[in-house]
Fold these 2 entries.
Entry 1:
Amino acid sequence: MVQQKSDAVRINARKSDVFDIFNFKHYIGPNFYLDTGALVFDFALTEYREPLPLEDYISIISDRYPLLGEQTYESHAHLFAQVVSEVGKLDMDLHLNHWSVKPYPDFVRIGVQSLYERTTREVVYFVWDWFETISQKEDFLFDEQLVRLQRRFRQSVYGGPTVYALLRTAYEKGIPTFYLWEEGLMQYGFGKKHVRGVATTFNCDSHLDSEFTTRKDDCKAFLKTLGFPVPKGDIVVSEKKALGVAKEIGYPVAVKPVVGHKGIGVTADVQDAQELVSAYNRALAAIPEEQSTLIIVEKSIPGADFRLLCVNGKFVAATERRPASVVGDGNSTIEELIWQENRKPGRLDTPTSPMSKIQRDEAMQLYLEEQGLSLDSVIKKDRTVYLRKVANLSAGGMSINATDTVHHDNIILAQDIAQHFELTCLGIDVITKSLAESWKTSNFAILEINAAPGILMHLKPAVGESVDVPSHILETFFESGTDARIPIITFNKISVEELQETIDHILLQHPDWTIGAICRDAVFVNRSKKVFGKDYNSNVQILLRNPKLDLLIAEYNEDVLKEEGMFYQNSNMVVLDNPTETEMMLVRDVFNDSTVVIRKENDISIRRKGLIEDYTLGEDEPFTRVYLKETGTIL
């Protein structure tokens, strides 16, 4: 079915609809339709109404996506598939570019690359509604619906800026990545090659060091002992003691909770006792109930706020962080200027946008009052008004790349600090007038250490060039995608006995290896039979999570491929015994230097390193002899 109506029973279509969408199926990995995770569904024309000419749909859609208007389409289904793929990027430039269309007699089966099933399914319904409103020549609230989809994605496990940046980089580098639902962690790599983590914290990091950085008072004392510059101050447990410390060290001071993140409860440049009381109460409110009332009062150092980032003990990036601000136009109030600023593309507040939306809160209103302003004030043209004292990016602050301006002494300082922490990523927050001046001769102070620093500010600064921090992080563990993988042998058909024979054959060559193996009837780790779960790909995942695994052997027959698809991409060796059309997809997902063995009746075809060998199986020659011999090419 390409352009013709179908008499098939409609599943989801209303009587006013031109199109019908039904039969959804989500695959977490390669499948018959795409070599990536995909949402697959069926698309048909209804008998209720005639569709408009393709050109009518293209004309309206191209107003939103001009590049789609420059292409030609075989059918409404092909246009629908490409629009779903484009909308699926959610105006965030998500790495979802693949789609497919497969015609059947009464419908077309569409596959679109998918990361998060719930969002992709809603995207399909979104595009369906859009097509139907075009058919009926009605208006469609595109922007409002898109914001809802963006919010849905942000709430997913993949929607955090740091998590998504690492996930996308891993995808581009060919590093296998999947989410461990039970642990709430991402896994990068397979078997003994893998690492697990949440954002920029990984299982190889020191838990003690990570926890130590959250104790800002102890960490500050430690840095002071090492001779690093930290501001004068003390820990207080009451408002009275806070006032005493401020009086002793002199105003202005900064106030912040000992335990905290993202600048919550932090107030800088407190000028007098009245401001200190308000700042103390904000810090107090930011402390979780289960934590002790410990608040830092320290000397406020004049200058700009910077983040120095080290990966694996090496300096890789620096960013200046400025508080949220608006620029007057002579007519608009601050409230209106904030509204205008929040509508800018750079403030989409997505996992890939350089700035968050400006947040209105008590701290903003108090700081405006200090400046003799309010949200109703009209600002004269070209005047910049800062909306808060703290450069909190999550509240709308601006990031400016400063990597190339950092003085050599400051790079050494950052790396010297990083050497004391067994952490993959370390963020060092400092305040100084300029990073171009040495800390030894300038008003330079270390504010705090972060064991789980965000990376979007470096990857997508509001001003300046991007620094590819995700690559620096992943290259700490893997020089390439190949380094993140263990050898994988995939069969379309193998019995338990043949599986055990294959395991034994490999163990004879590598007796110290740990081999995971699965067929439709059993799961093994070496010669030990394990519990077989009902979900096939969950069994495969469990094997690939094994931190000792050296090699995986897996069977993927037609039933599993149709029902679940594959868990992993690419095999080092594929062995096919009289394969079906569906099972031939296993040959599609191989590396250039993979070995492929195919048997059709008694005819054998072997492809290794680009060379093909064909011959006929001997009368008493078992097929196992053929593929066991070939395992040597990948081990």
Entry 2:
Amino acid sequence: MRKLIFMMMLVSALGVSAVSRITSPSGELLLNVDIDADGSLCYSLDYKGSSLVKESRLGLVSDEADFTHGFKIAGTDTLSVDRTWKPIWGEYETVRDNFRELAVILKAEKPDREMTVRFRLFDDGLGFRYEFPAQRGSSNYLTVRDEKTEFNFTGDHTLFCIPGDYDTDEYLWSETSFSGLPDALGRYRRHSEAQRTGGNTIQTPMLIKTGAPVYVNIHEAALKGYPAMLLDVDTDRHAMKTHLVPDKLGVRAYLHLPFESPWRTLIVSDDARDILASQLVLNLNEPCKIEDTSWIKPMKFIGVWWEMFTGKKKTWAYSDEYLAKPGVTDYASLKSNGRHPANTANVMRYIDFAARNGIDGVLVEGWNEGWEDWASYRKNRQFLFDKPYPDFDVDSLRDYAAAKGVKLIMHHETAANAADYELQLDRAFKFMKDNNYDAVKTGYVGAIIPRSEHHGSQWMVDHVRHVIERAADYEIMVDSHEAPRPTGLCRTYPNWLAQESARGGEFESMGGNPPSHTCILPFTRLKGGPMDYTPGLFETRLSCYDEGKNDQAGTTLARQLALYLTMPSPLQMACDLPENYERFPDAFQFIKDVPVDWADSRYIEAEPNRYITVARRDKESDDWYVGAITDESPRTAVIDMSFLPKGKKYEATIYEDAPGAHWKDNPQAYRIRKVKVDNKTRLKQPLAAGGGAAIRIKKLH
């Protein structure tokens, strides 16, 4: 039941005192807002009596008007809100939305300008945004050149970050400091799709750890109609400023007023577990806009996918004829290369495996015309999304999957030709519905078309939201890859089940991900929304597939099971080949059992880039599940089970690293044991280097 309390509302007249302040509901965070001598709005943030963010300026610059200085405070509104809402899916069955709000109304003259900055202060952080009403004395069309939002910190804190880039987020994370940032960024190699910003620019979400320690996640919420935000870092002043992704003409955004910017967010706590548990970004998004959500169903899936990464000479393309053109070439006349896994017989094998093991869906990549030569940026049409290859029988597979109770998941790789994808979108979605597909994985690998745009620019932000909205019209769920990183819009559009927008599990075949990688992603990238990381890798040595490949995943087998808990998503892949799961059926049982939608979550232990231990309760039963992971260092997780109901007895099935397990030297050493537990249990759980543990806790009757 929603509870909305308006504790106070104050509208002040022109000429009020310039200083305003509010505290969070608990009183631990204090926000101060003021006007400086130049008429610039400034804010500062204290946490538990100590300065966290020093006085920092706010504002926006456009060709038509400057919204950074010359202002007076024309009024303030304050209110307090305490309410709850129910996500369609997620980590919690119910989310509390409890904040105090301060809206500061600003006016300036010569020329006349008006702007409101709205602050919301929660117990776990701060969100604020710019609101531009229709302007009486200035243009209502703004060509935005810069946003001047500052985050000025108090010392040479630790930073967890990746390089600023307009076109990719697929980097490993650096743990550095303000002063060490230039050296850290200098060590990165150029990504194949990168458009690095240069200088000391980093992406959001990112994490700061002060010496106290206090942890601060910086990101944004409800990104729409505006470019994605990066951060320019002043390493001497320990300060940051927004850096909006431009188009290739240098324009950040074209705005038609009235307009509300995305929220700028700071999640704050002296307990790292609170950063993981925070729902602040979701709370700053609008409620669900989809009236009937009964068709949105979280799911697990396998896919014709990993075998193309493993070095077995498999390919997404049907033919080696690189001059073939989608919609022009008669693909039936081409000779198959014999290395195309997206064929009818192979997909049926995956469907059979999914049906035998209770896996909901099967993703198929490489099923459609165009993979022979998709030359990103060089062509105006790379793919057709309603034309299957000759060896992919859509009708037979549709009927076969339906008879087996398995859903097929469509794949729409666009080669970053978002313009052509929009032209085909309705035809593609109709084709999906006609053939019983209700979920799609989209992809934008390469340089964006229109050729004036970047992956994080305003046009692309609008494009991806258009795809989500149009998909909802067709009752289609979406998993988007290479899209602008998420900002909590999955609350508003819960058919947006997952995104990639980070370096995912596919990189285990391209140099590998170190064990620490999945110990930092939940503190950073996942604060915007769930990630399609693709866990479940059992054969971690790529040399097992191809003697020429030496890549190895930074994980033990048991850790891969734990990722289903520490990297939560309503759309979870079991990424490995069916034959590898058949080699380890007892370990695969956990993947079959683990839910993807939760009633409650309890973060038990956490330290960024080091370790995470979390417990989650199944939304459909009384079962609890625990996942624990560590970085390259072995450790003993202490799992406090006080989250279990008092007086009830449970049996815990523990999937753990065996003695001698090691992510590199002995990754497949695991064992399974059972112990009796209750809410007084404090389980000491050993984790190998790069290892983990996954536990199912079932009530005894």
